[in-house]
Design a protein that fits this description.
There is one protein chain. The chain is of the alpha+beta class. It has two domains: about 140 residues, 2-Layer Sandwich (Fructose-1,6-Bisphosphatase, Chain A, domain 1); about 130 residues, D-Maltodextrin-Binding Protein, domain 2 (3-Layer(aba) Sandwich). It contains seven helices and 14 strands. The strands form three sheets. The protein has a seven-stranded mixed beta sheet, with helices on both faces. It has a five-stranded mixed beta sheet with strand order 11-10-12-14-13, with helices on both faces.
């Protein structure tokens, strides 16, 4: 069941598409790029869309909290005991956007009682929208077409010749060699947006998405993991514990997840998680000693 009215759901979908198409148009123009932190960038387009989306959601949902990536003050809403929190990422995959690549997205997720219950993800370069949530289902729409149900495609079980695993470039540079030693059948690939990586797993292009570097925040995860869970995927850490959105498992200032994140089909998680855990444990002492 849709957690909001059909009218508001349609407004969200139309809003994300308008914002995403604006970003796609502006991607060919000259825009400003700023460094928020080490290897963490934001553009003037991120900031503009952040303001537009924030204002729209506050108007649509005046009784809910709204957290956006580019408004640091909005992060306090996570601690204000709102029953529902809207977590907004104006451009997920900013580095891809900066380099005029295609794999970025506009994302919104709904967190209720610290559980991700709904998400909307629009990929402007493909004019493709994915949305849905728990007890609702997952849907997709291309351009102006009528949305249709999206049924997850479970890939074949891992074998020596087939084991597609999504992993970000930073995680592959840190952990790829150790993982390859313990899981030689793993076939790594990557793309920009966290959300679009999750969609690739839902669509069966990968059996598992692995995220280890501790930089991912609520606005990155709430929408995509709501879709992943609705599609029947497993969302857990290296210990097998479900990904938690409670304050105990979220950094109070940055709203980053403290848990490493695995998103995958059950057969991949069951077979690969113990070896992934062992591989990461072999690398972590070296990383900690170099800090």
């Amino acid at each position: 069941m849709n957690p909001i009215s059909l009218e508001l759901d349609q407004q969200i979908r139309q809003l994300l598409r308008r914002c995403g198409q604006y970003a796609e148009q502006m991607s060919a123009s000259q825009f400003e790029v700023f460094e928020k932190g080490p290897d963490d960038y934001v553009t003037s387009i991120d900031s503009l869309l952040d303001q537009k989306l924030s204002a729209a959601f506050k108007l649509m949902f005046p009784d809910d909290g709204v957290i956006t990536e580019e408004n640091a003050q909005s992060r306090t809403k996570f601690h204000d005991r709102h029953n529902r929190l809207w977590c907004i990422d104006p451009i997920d995959g900013t580095e891809d956007f900066i380099h005029r690549k295609r794999d970025y997205a506009v994302m919104v997720g709904l967190l209720q009682d610290y559980q991700p219950i709904a998400g909307w993800l629009y990929a402007p370069a493909y004019d493709q929208l994915y949305y849905g949530g728990s007890d609702w289902g997952v849907f997709q729409a291309t351009a102006d077409a009528v949305p249709e149900p999206l049924v997850g495609i479970e890939p074949a079980s891992p074998t020596a010749g087939f084991c597609p695993v999504l992993i970000g470039h930073r995680d592959q540079s840190r952990f790829g060699s150790a993982i390859a030693q313990l899981i030689p059948e793993a076939q790594f690939y990557s793309l920009g947006s966290f959300g679009l990586k999750v969609v690739d797993v839902i669509l069966g292009r990968a059996g598992l998405y692995l995220y280890l570097n501790g930089r991912v925040k609520l606005w990155d995860t709430v929408g995509p993991l709501a879709l992943a869970k609705a599609a029947g995927l497993v969302c857990c850490d290296l210990e097998g514990r479900s990904i938690s959105f409670s304050p105990l498992d979220i950094d109070s200032e940055t709203l980053a997840h403290k848990q490493p994140i695995l998103v995958g089909w059950a057969n991949y998680v069951e077979l690969l998680r113990p070896r992934l855990k062992a591989a990461v444990e072999t690398v972590m002492p070296n990383l900690e000693s170099s800090v």
